[in-house]
Structure formats: structure tokens, C-alpha cells
From TrEMBL:
Annotated family: Belongs to the GDT1 family.
Protein name stated in the entry: GDT1 family protein
Compartments where located: Membrane
Pfam families: GDT1
Domain of life where this protein originates: Eukaryota
Organism: Rhynchospora tenuis
Cellular component GO terms held in the UniProt record: Golgi apparatus; membrane
GO biological-process terms attached to the record: Golgi calcium ion homeostasis; Golgi calcium ion transport
Predominant place of localization: membrane
Keywords per UniProt: Membrane, Transmembrane, Transmembrane helix
InterPro entries, per database record: GDT1-like (IPR001727)
GO molecular function: calcium ion transmembrane transporter activity; manganese ion transmembrane transporter activity
Topological category with respect to the lipid bilayer: Multi-pass membrane protein
Amino acid sequence: MGLSLLEGFAKSLAMTILSEIGDNTFFAAAILAMRHPRSHVLAGCLVSLIITTILSAALGYAAPNLVPRDWTHHITTLLFFVFGIWSLWEGFTEDGDDDELAEVEAKLNADSKGKSRNKENSKDDDDLKKSKRPFLTQYFSPFFIKAFSITFFGEWGDRSQIATIGLAADENPFGVVLGGILGQGLCTVLAVVGGKGLASHISEKIVTLASGALFIAFGVHSFLSSADD
């Protein structure tokens, strides 16, 4: 079973890029960057993604200490095949490429409308609110917090996070963290700089099919490595 830093880095980088491009959090970052200061959105997204990547890798690293390594390897192999088949199925059955972008934009629009109504109804309490602001908003911009929270909760429990946990259980966790952070960073910068215009030109179908093929390839590689052992 290969535990090299380079192998973990390469697998994590490829998996992260193909999983995150066209993902909900990718579209959310692109839309937020069109509405708020890009530096705040980029910082919030990156900090959130770095934290989730490290937490995921830490969970994966701890797994072999709680469960026999052979079991974690077989579970990881199974997850790769499941995610691969799932992604291929989604890719072949998707009707259009703009559904997810439109869905994310609609959710963000609904949230912003609700907040704007609340602001209109409470203009007289501005001074009182400023003095009683939550602790975090006294040190971080609301745009940073918004980008951080949307990204963090959007990433938690999705395929890329679970796959990162599996990779860290089976590969060098430091390589997985480095590859994951670099992949997340590249995708986030692309989303923030390119904005909604770039996001709308990305084919979710092609990316989903490519990620499915990659997961299947990882599963085959993991299966063959266990057979060799």
C-alpha cells in the first residue's frame, strides 16, 4: 500500500479539482464575488476550505487507529467505486448544465431578500445593534463570515470531504492535505476571479463525468494495490 507523500498529493489534487469545479460551493463563491468585495469572499472561502480539508484529513488519519488498516483500505476502495458510479450516473442523467448554478443563485437571492427586509424594519436600532454585535463581526467583515459559513456548511458531508477522509486513511495524510488545499485554492481563485460569467460556461456534465471516471480509476488502483499486498 503506497503511502508516499507525492502519491497522496497527486490523488488529492486531482480529486479535489474535479470534485469542486461546478460544485455548489464553487458557484456560491462565484456569485458572492459578484456582489461583495472579492478579497473578503476569497479569504472567507479559502479559510473555510483549509479548515475542512485539515479536519477531513485528521479524521482519515485517525481512522486506522480505531479500525484495522485493512478494513479502512477496503472501505476506501468501496467508496471510490460508489462515488465513481454515482458521479457517472449523475453525469449521464443530467438534463442541463445551468440547473445547479441557478439553484445556488436562487438560494442566495432568497437569503439576501430576507435580510434586506429585516434591515428596513430596524433602522432606528442601528446604534444599539452596533454596540451588541456578535463577537465575530467585531473582528471580521460580514462578507468574510458569510463566505466562510456558506462554504463550510456546504462542504461538510459532501463527496469531496468523504473522499478526502478516505484518501487520508489510505495515503500519506500530509500529501492529502497539501493536494487538497492547493486544489481548493485553485478552484476558489478561479471562481472568485472569473465570477458568474465563467461559472456559467463550465459544463457540469463534463466535470461530473470526469470526476466519476477519476473515482473509478482510484478505486481500481486501490483494489489492485490491495491484491498485490
